[in-house]
Automatic annotation (TrEMBL):
Protein name stated in the entry: ROK family protein
Species of provenance: Dyadobacter sandarakinus
Pfam families linked to this entry: ROK
Family classification: Belongs to the ROK (NagC/XylR) family.
TM helices/strands, residue ranges: none
Amino acid sequence: MIDHQPQAAMKDVFIGIDFGGTRIKIGLIAGGQLIADANLEADAALTFEQRLTDIGLEMSRLVFAGSYRLTGIGFAFPGIVNFHTGRILSKYVKYPGAENVDLNRWAQANFGVPVAVENDARAALVGEWKHGAGRGSSDLVLVTLGTGVGTGVLVNGAPLRGKNFIGGNLGGHSTINADGVICNCGNIGCVESESSTWALARIAAASPGFSESRLAALDLIDFKNLFELAEQEDALAVSLLDRCLRVWSLCVINLVHAYDPEKVIFGGGIMKSSQVILPYIRQMLDKHAWVSAADVELVVAAQPEHAGIWGIYELFKQKNH
């Protein structure tokens, strides 16, 4: 028997791609809902164009699997981005050659759809503002703690960008130690070079008492191990953790003084230890800031996995509608 029933209309979907320091997150949004997602490894051995080939294949698989119609693509990238032209302006070690790739052209050639491109922390900020811990606020700061330290700022209900598109994004590259080492960005004593995952092993190895610490026996020194050993009262782990907490706190104080937000939202894998981090920062705010912890709310991100995807979705709608 031939079925003469009309086929159901194809569902329009948007795909957001969030380029992280260790993972590339891909999410499908339709009808205001995240309906599917996938992950790829961030592989610095591959060029950005090679990584885009893998991303394109994964996107095609997701779209084909649901018989969807793709209407737009968003890219949240960990670097300086011209939102208006969609061009990546800075180099990033995990995605070599990204600054030479025209994502608008790539999307048109491969999928025939428009794109939006934004800095990943700014996109995550917008995602939390519209779909997470920042709902109902018009002045926000986002801080992501992890492989690096990313920041984004919302002022009077608008993402801060600035003339050169660095506005609000370089909290992790503000100088926190005038006698510090040269950061991978070229600046001196940055928040990142003093307290991020990529700097932690170097800081630990240069510390007195390293050889006696259980940190010395680890294949990988990361914050998960640091928090665990500090809880077990390893002397160096306790000292290093306190140092990192102080650096993060001073970074937050600088951001609060600069932007006077209603809330500071914290994201990143390290926030699994928020019960240690947030009380410490509140105490430092009370002690050293021009405002008290009662004047600015410190909250954990409500969309830790998909804030960047939600944010670039909202920015795509703003740009293309």
